[in-house]
Write the structure tokens for this entry.
Amino acid sequence: MKLYGSYTSPYVRHCRVALAQSSFDYEFVEADYAMSAENSPTAKVPYFIDGELMLTDSSSILKYIREKSGQVFLADIKDFDSFALATTLLDATVNLFLIENNGFGPDQISYLGRQRNRIESGLKELNERFHPDQSIELDSTLRCLCFIDWALFRKRISLDGLTNLQGLLNTANRVEAFSGTAPPA
Ligand SMILES: N[C@@H](CCC(=O)N[C@@H](CS)C(=O)NCC(=O)O)C(=O)O
């Protein structure tokens, strides 16, 4: 098994945590923009190869790792919805980060204001749905954690007043599979 990605990507991190929670041996290969553009149709990371199988999205990679190791992947519908919600917020935050780094913000592109509001309202909803002792074996919890830890790392969000999310992050940081995959300082 080979997982291609970067040490900062939250999507890649989620796959690294799932692999750490499995018993599989795998190789992590660092892939930059040029390499992902050459090898993946989405030009994104992560992508993953196991023999003849090539996967191009963190969700399919997670499903594969979980099911191959006898675990379940998002079997519960509410769990699935929370995974999807956290992914929508992560996608919006990554998108906004990249576009703002290119010199554009809500003053130039009004849709970016909608993205910003979505992140704010979505974080409040995540704070309602998750509590500090939520299992980090669940992919909804892990997606939420990979999102908020990356967004804090990039200084894109604040957890002020979001005490459940702050408590959940504190709990997760005591677990090696999560803390050991943190973005490099
Ligand atoms: N839906 C994809 C999203 C992956 C993604 O957006 N990866 C970012 C890194 S955090 C990327 O490769 N971005 C490169 C680009 O946008 O060109 C997944 O879940 O794997």
